TrEMBL record:
GO molecular function, one term: flavin adenine dinucleotide binding
InterPro entries according to UniProt: FAD/NAD-bd_sf, FAD/NAD-binding_dom, Fd--NADP_Rdtase_type_2, Ferredoxin-NADP_redctase_2
Annotated ranges, domain FAD/NAD(P)-binding: 18-303
Origin species: Paraburkholderia sprentiae WSM5005
Xref: Pfam families: Pyr_redox_2 (PF07992)
Cofactor section: FAD
Record's keyword annotation contains Zinc: no
Transmembrane region(s): none
Note accompanying the cofactor annotation: Binds 1 FAD per subunit.
Primary enzyme class: oxidoreductase
UniProt name for this protein: Ferredoxin--NADP reductase
Keyword NAD (UniProt): no
Subunit structure: Homodimer.
Length: 352
């Protein structure tokens, strides 16, 4: 897979491909592989800054037991295996790109634009975006907004940005603990804040954090953030609400890692039939109410829908076979079992 460069610095020409896959989670990655298997070109866009979707953002090291032929693997391992499977087809992945508008042209193809200036010319669109675009869950405190990117953060762009700073990391999941542990090596002081003493992170991360606290390498405080104290436009401290009252905690930077929330965003304006925040599809091919737009994975809605990764794999496989007819309307696709597909074997063998 190829992570594409940021196009925002200069204008770009439309990128022509057969299918645009929206979402780089497990289902989107498998769809890219399936597209290559049946002879479709594709590109992937994702609003997040890394591949893996909600699996990587929410539970990267939690075990998954229901992937066929794999007894057990973590979400991180699953994404790595899917990337390896896609490698022979060298599919470009455009990260931090949110699809904003779509327009169907007279020739039946679609013009798709992202918020950062990418333009795609595609025969079909495959929505594999989970429950929509996942965005960080932000603080609701009024003083947080003006401090964003300078003193209040919802991700960690570079560890070096926090060198010799007093940093508070808020959250109880894998991301919060992992970043707190990493920052303790570069920041002047790191304090992990969580509303309770229990965590949703991997046991190994919790144990490592507790050892670091015992060794005096970082601090841990139970409490909820009630207010931010600002002086001359800069963060100075936090007010933490605890059972026995409130305390003040000095901080130059606050990194709030409360997980992601789903937001359909512009997809809700595309004229699709949507119920409960999910796109209605025809289960014979997982096509939406607009021909040429497909929905697979958690974003797809139909009777007896099961939100399972393996269900998304099946949905993507059938959707792409219908998408083939849009990409090559005058060409009949002949089904060949992968075991007997000499070209596929050669491509995968050469890549390996």
């Amino acid at each position: 897979m190829t992570v594409a460069a940021d196009p925002s610095a200069s204008p770009v020409s439309p990128i022509r491909t057969d299918v645009l896959i929206v979402g780089a989670g497990p289902v989107g990655l498998f769809a890219a592989f399936e597209a290559g298997v049946i002879g479709l070109s594709c590109q992937i866009v994702d609003i997040l800054g890394r591949v893996g979707g909600q699996c990587i953002e929410l539970y990267p090291d939690k075990p998954i037991y229901d992937i066929p032929a794999i007894t057990s693997c973590t979400a991180r391992e699953l994404v790595e295996r899917l990337l390896a499977q896609c490698k022979p087809f060298d599919v470009p992945i455009h990260l931090e790109q949110r699809v904003e508008t779509i327009e169907q042209r007279d020739d039946g193809r679609w013009t798709v634009r992202t918020q950062r200036g990418l333009v795609f010319d595609v025969a079909a669109i495959l929505l594999g975006a989970g429950n929509g675009a996942f965005v960080p869950q932000k603080l609701t405190l009024p003083e947080a907004g003006p401090l964003e990117t300078r003193h209040v953060h919802y991700s960690v762009p570079r560890l070096a940005d926090f060198a010799d700073k007093n940093v508070v990391v808020a959250g109880g999941g894998d991301s919060a603990l992992d970043w707190a542990l990493a920052l303790r090596k570069v920041a002047r002081r790191v304090t992990l804040v969580h509303r309770r003493a229990g965590f949703s992170a991997a046991d190994s991360s919790v144990e490592l954090m507790r050892r670091a606290v015992e060794a005096g390498e970082m601090d841990f405080v139970v409490g909820g953030i009630a207010a931010l104290e600002v002086e001359d436009g800069a963060l100075r401290s936090l007010t933490l609400r605890q059972i026995d009252g409130e305390i003040q905690l000095e901080a130059e930077h606050l990194i709030a890692l409360y997980g992601l929330v789903a937001d359909l965003g512009p997809i809700a304006q595309w004229g699709l039939t949507i119920h409960g925040g999910r796109v209605d599809v025809d289960t014979s091919n997982y096509e939406s109410s607009r021909p040429g737009i497909f929905a697979v994975g958690d974003i797809a809605n139909y009777p007896n829908k099961q939100k399972l990764i393996l269900s998304g794999f099946h949905e993507a496989s059938l959707a792409l076979r219908k998408a083939y007819a849009y990409a090559y309307p005058d060409k009949k696709r002949v089904h060949v079992h992968s075991s007997y597909d000499a070209k596929l074997a050669e491509k995968i063998g050469a890549a390996g």
